[in-house]
Amino acid sequence: MAKPPLSMNPTGWFQVAWSDEIGVGDVHTMKYFGREMIAWRAESGQLTVMNAYCEHLGAHLGYGGTVCGEVLQCPFHGWQWNSQGRNVCIPYQDKPNRGRRITTYPVVERNESVYIWNDAQGREPYFDAPDVFASFDDRSAADYYPQQRLFRAGLELHPQYVLENGVDFAHFKYVHRTPIVPVFTRHDFAEPVSYVDFTITFEGDDGQKIEDVNSGVEAINGGLGIAVTKSWGMIDNRTISAITPVDESTSDVRFMVYIGRSPAGGDPARAEARAGEFGREVIRQFEQDIHIWSHQRYSDPPALATAEYEGFTAIRQWAKQFYPDGIGGSAAEVYAQKGFTA
């Protein structure tokens, strides 16, 4: 495996947990972007994600810290911290310490997931995390069977590997054994939230023509950290992939799939069982990609086929905006120098 050469501290929304992992009163420990963090849920249900160490004498609040109503109490000396990271109580002193603050992160709960905003420059969020339902149409989770999940921790890969997969039309035939190479009908990288649509089928034989295919995928990329997809013309499914850097070498990978509920009138138990099977197949296909990503070397510039220039140069140019130094892959610059255009 090769250490990813890109910055592991990109700007954007990234998943750090699933919502149901953090109940009321829970304190959840984690490490992302090289930092020890905790998530805790107050009695009101409000979720806070903050750096893990107490500003008093450095106790780790994830090991013995307790939720007391709407604040978190340090296990070492009982100092209490609110959801803004402010000290609100020192039990053996009349006044809190107003000069010290624990770093907190903007957080949203969406897609049954906990997302935090990471930005090395400390800016507020300037785009929204995509919703696997609302970002496409007005359908909701009630129209789907319960979410099926995959979690792989500490893999040597970068979030950009996964996003680039979305413009890589050729891999579908060789990794996923699709009968045809898909045709992309939309590449829109004008904003931090980008869009990729393509026509594809997973059934049939090699004699099929793309003109005869009436199914496809719509994808929305919320920066480098979150991608949601909607399938049409196939079994109704929605997916969410979320890749979050842990340290300078590794990322955690989460993948979720929803399968649409069958119309009323059939055998409910059988329909749910079939949905479970299909969901597991979608996850299996994602695992095929993970196997390659986790052993991949980031090629910069890559040796691209002519038909690949447009997609790869567009997404690598788009990705640069999320890095602290404004440098992602340099493929777009290299190909521009050689006279290629997207």
From TrEMBL:
> Where on the tree of life does the source sit, at the highest rank?
Bacteria
What UniProt keywords are attached to this protein's entry? 2Fe-2S, Iron, Iron-sulfur, Lipid degradation, Lipid metabolism, Membrane, Metal-binding, Oxidoreductase, Steroid metabolism, Transmembrane, Transmembrane helix
Q: Which PROSITE patterns match?
A: RIESKE (PS51296)
**What InterPro entries does this protein's entry cite?**
Cholesterol_7-desaturase, KshA-like_C, Rieske_2Fe-2S, Rieske_2Fe-2S_sf
List the EC numbers from the record. Answer: 1.14.19.21
Signal peptide position in this chain? none
What reaction is this protein's catalytic activity?
cholesterol + NADH + O2 + H(+) = 7-dehydrocholesterol + NAD(+) + 2 H2O; cholesterol + NADPH + O2 + H(+) = 7-dehydrocholesterol + NADP(+) + 2 H2O
Q: Where in the cell is it found?
A: Membrane
Query: Which terms under GO biological process does the entry name?
Result: cholesterol metabolic process; lipid catabolic process
Where the record annotates domain Rieske, the positions are 13-116
Pathway assigned in UniProt: Steroid hormone biosynthesis; dafachronic acid biosynthesis; Hormone biosynthesis
Q: What does the entry list under GO cellular component? A: cytoplasm; membrane
| Main location, first listed in the record | membrane
User: What Pfam families does the database record attribute to this sequence?
Assistant: KshA_C, Rieske
A single MF term (Gene Ontology):
monooxygenase activity
Query: Required cofactors, per record?
Result: Fe cation
Oligomer status and interactors: Homotrimer. The two-component system 3-ketosteroid-9-alpha-monooxygenase is composed of an oxygenase component KshA and a reductase component KshB.
Family designation: Belongs to the cholesterol 7-desaturase family.
The protein depicted here goes by the name cholesterol 7-desaturase
Native source organism of the sequence: Mycolicibacter longobardus
